[in-house]
Structures are given as C-alpha cells and as structure tokens.
Amino acid sequence: MGEQRPLPPGEAWRAVAACFLTTFPLLTRHRIRLPKERVGMGLRFADGTSARVYRETHLGSGLAKDPCTLVVTFRLRLVRGPAHALFRRESLLNTPLFVGFPGFTSKLWLAHDEHDRYRGIYEWDGPERAEHYARSLWRVLALVSVPGSISYTVLPGLRRDDVIANPGLIEDLASHDAAAWWRVQAGV
C-alpha cells in the first residue's frame, strides 16, 4: 500500500454515485442483512483503545472469494457526548455509500473509542477493490471528519472474522507497527 490519499474528486464522486445507484436493487431484493450476533462485541486495539460493535452489515453470505480485511478510521467534527448516540442511529442511512461498491461483503461498525475515533472493519473481495473503496470513501468522510483523522489499512488474504478471532494472524504484518490503531488485539 502506497501513500494514503483520496481519489481525485471526479473519480471518487462517480464511484460513490454508482454505488448509491447499485444499492437500491440490492435493497429491493433483500440482499442486505443486518445480523445481530456481533452487536455489542468489544474489541481492543494495539494502540490501547477499545470500541464496541454497534451494527453489522452483510451483502449476501458476507464471505469473499479473494478475501481481505479493510480497517478504516476517522474522527467526526463537532460530535461529542450525547451526539455520538445520534450519529450511531443516523449512520444506518450511510449504508448506500458502501454496500454497492464492487467487492463489498461485510462490515462491522464500531462505536467511537477513547479518542473519539470511529472504525469500520470490513471484508472485501479483492484488496484492489478495498483500496478503491477506501480512497473513494475518503471524499465523503472529509466532509464531516476532523482534517488528518482519516486513515485505512488493507490486509490482503485475511478474512475479517479471522483477524478478529485470531489476532496472531497479523503478527508478521504488524511487526513494524506493534501499536497500530488498526491492529485488533482481543475481544473485551
């Protein structure tokens, strides 16, 4: 993965618009599911923070043929205290901004951590698709996020649930950054 930056504006907004249009047929065919099994599950990260899953979204089976895990983080502007609960409820309306992207399979939505950072932990079908999504999403997040707070990590060849259940899978990848914000250490 090279330097993190958003896609050029035109390319990013076209991708978001295409995703949005693709989402509606998925909704009408009941392909989008919101399972409850992981809601409430807590995760601890290598940087010492922790967060709880407040929603899960699956498209179809939620499993990728060429799996990779994508972890995205951002900090919202002007959202403090009770406004976090309002954001978590409202965020369901953001679903059309990602489920229609090519390669999306599943997402865990994590509540804000001790530094007010939100995370999304996704499984994508193909690391290039995950990277394209993250760089497109950047343009949307930049509208509501603290400048400099957006970041992402793509972990090729790893299923999201395996990364969460067995944090040792990413030991070799994380050896250079043992306290990474994206590195799941354990459930809480």
Task: Kindly summarize this structure in a few lines.
With 188 residues, the protein is an alpha+beta fold. The chain is built from five helices and eight strands; from the N terminus they run αββββαββαβααβ. Strands 1, 2, 3, 4, 5, 6, 7 and 8 form an eight-stranded antiparallel beta sheet that branches.
Can you give keywords for this protein?
29% helix, alpha+beta, 188 residues, 8-stranded antiparallel β-sheet
Please tell me about this protein's structure.
The protein has 188 residues and is an alpha+beta fold. The protein is 29% helix and 27% strand. The protein has helices at residues 9-28, 83-90, 127-142, 160-165, 171-174, and strands spanning 32-33, 42-45, 50-59, 67-75, 104-110, 117-125, 151-156, 184-187. The radius of gyration is 15 Å and the shape is globular. The relative contact order is 0.23. The model has no long low-confidence stretch (mean pLDDT 89).
Q: How would you sum up the major sheet?
A: 8 strands, antiparallel
Shape call:
globular
In terms of per-residue confidence, which ranges show pLDDT below 50 for 5 or more consecutive residues?
Answer: none
- Oligomer description: single chain
> Helix tally?
5
Average of per-residue pLDDT values: 89
Radius of gyration: 15 Å
Which series of helices and strands comes N to C?
HEEEEHEEHEHHE
* Helix content, binned percent: 25-40%
Distance between the termini: 30 Å
